[in-house]
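Section 3.1: Structural characterization of target chains.
Under the original work plan, the team committed to producing a structural model for every single-chain target entering the pipeline before any wet-lab resources were allocated. The record below documents one such target. The sequence was received from the expression subgroup and is listed exactly as submitted; it comprises 73 residues.
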Amino acid sequence: MFSEIGPIEAIVLNVVFLAVYFTPSVVAFRRRHPRRRLILAINLVFGATLIGWAVALYLATRSTPDREPAPTR
């Protein structure tokens, strides 16, 4: 099946794969998630498994509570 793939097609497939693979990390960094580095680590280490990728995506899209500054007296 892949024996007839050319170099351009291989590059395009790799770019698409990497874009999908790092989607959770991109979402976390774009949303300025407080735990974006943890999400990136989970994505890098466990992203190859669908469960790890799904966990990273869940964490990246989860709403984060707005941190209000403590009232000063």
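The mean pLDDT is 90.
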